[in-house]
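Continuing from yesterday's entry. The apo prediction looked reasonable, so today I'm repeating it with flavin-adenine dinucleotide included to see how the binding region is handled. Same sequence as before; SMILES copied from the compound registry.
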Amino acid sequence: MTDHDARIIVIGAGHNGLVCAAYLARAGHEVTVLEAAAEPGGAAVTREFAPGFRVPACAHLLYLLDDGIRKELALDKHGLRMARSGLVSIGLDPDGGHVRIAGASVGGVADADQEAMQAHHRRMRRFAHIIGRLHNRQPPRLGTTDRRDLASLARLALDIRTLGRTEMREFLRIAGINIYDVLQERFENPVLKGALSLDAVLGTFLGPRSNNSVFCALHRLSGGGDYALPAGGMGAVTAALASAAREAGAEIRTGSPVARILVDHDRVSGVELDDGEWLPAAKVVSSADPRATLHGLLGARHLEAGFAHRVGNIRMRGCAAKVHLALDGMPEFTGLDAAGAGERLLIAPSLEYVERAFNHAKYGEHSAAPVAEMTLPSLHDDSLAPAGQHVLSAVVQWAPRNLKQGWADARAAFLDTVIDTMARYAPGIREQILHAELLTPEDIERQFRITGGHWHHGELSLDQFLMMRPVPGAGQYATPVPGLWLCGAGSHPGGGVMGSAGRNAARAIVGSNRE
Ligand SMILES: Cc1cc2nc3c(=O)[nH]c(=O)nc-3n(C[C@H](O)[C@H](O)[C@H](O)COP(=O)(O)OP(=O)(O)OC[C@H]3O[C@@H](n4cnc5c(N)ncnc54)[C@H](O)[C@@H]3O)c2cc1C
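Holo prediction written out below.
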């Protein structure tokens, strides 16, 4: 056995791969991270898309990063700083009747909606807290008598029970249903309802009337609901993580795409890179999505048929696109002052608008009138654009990965539709555009190696959560193949820049007596 046979290889230097590598290295393991791209960061990177203009390429808002990870890895010491936190969400109205949402407070709506918002927010926060408490636990296995699994299930039951009878009933009533019904029950203002519904469907293949959308809203709120812009864009988070991982002793090799995971006598023995180099390892931990890892890099022939079939059935139809605009000045939104333009701006003016935007995706079409979550990060961070100019970063839906007409034919028309949609709220914006970039889920799949270009590496829903994520049989980060582990967003607790999957996986590996 050579020294390197004891090494742990982490595939992918996205934020979860980096977190996992940092914790493994701190536990004394020899760790090598292999990243296909030229820079670490995965879907949380900042990059130049036009000369002098930089944007967060996929993820653009930080709201789920685990506080414990931030402290334990001393990310602030490694350079992480916020350009702005506590962003207000502004539901835009084409006529300027915007709605401002800051936690439980909402402005621009009638008193009854303000009161209803207090109760709604309090309740959603309490329910989201239950989900948040699961983030840093390894999901229990079902059907075992292992003390830890039973204790973990008991803790979950107790968390729900301590809500009290009325709230427990409400939690169980709404957790699996749709946000449309819940918001219709509670509010009047259409812009408020539209904006709140967007939080339940961003990054998913769900509309407000789809079941599971309440669960997605709770997942989004489970980090506390504070939206922040890291100084230097999202890439600053992964730059700090890479620095922490290196300090702990991990080696990070960029420009090193893994072609396949090697198996010897039914257990993992290392990886082969695209250029033919073989790297032996005792364990391989993959932050690539579960299907890319298990079907692509490992190969279904190494898996039992039922398990391989379940992996093939993971729902991962990406439908969030990114649009980046380099602007020759500050865009003017009707009825919004300059400070307002620096907040989190939502195009989702009613529940019906959002549902209609989703309808197209069911039939393989992109939205004719899309929804968007927009930020102008350069208003808070002058490292992102030349003086007096700005960048706009928008998540836009729905833009299904498998567009019926194909993205090659549709991309110009979709970008035009998005800009027309934005111009309904900021009439002069088209004339201010120096450069526009559209990343469809197909682009995201290719550039970031995420199957389907899916935000969460697999749909976030109750049937793909906790011990069912990504599939039963791999819900505790270990796969059925000895020595192969998962640590990315496709594992519990899912996507978003939070780091919990990476840390949970590292803990499971360190604490495991499995090979
Ligand atoms: C359009 C869009 C907008 C989003 N907006 C937000 C947001 O505002 N806030 C938020 O919190 N989240 C957002 N997300 C979600 C978030 O970006 C992801 O959930 C998160 O980045 C996943 O992190 P990860 O480390 O698990 O995986 P990734 O970031 O996907 O990293 C995996 C890494 O593995 C590498 N890799 C894959 N295959 C190989 C291979 N064979 N060899 C070597 N390397 C390989 C990839 O290159 C990549 O670097 C967004 C996602 C999308 C798509």
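Comparison notes:
- Residues 3-44+65-79+233-315+454-511 form a domain with the FAD/NAD(P)-binding domain fold (CATH 3.50.50.60).
- The pocket of flavin-adenine dinucleotide is lined by residues 11-17, 34-37, 42-44, 58-61, 64, 203, 257-258, 287-288, 292, 297, 320, 322, 395, 444, 448-450, 455-456, 488-489, 495-497 (CB under 6 Å).
Will overlay with the apo model tomorrow.
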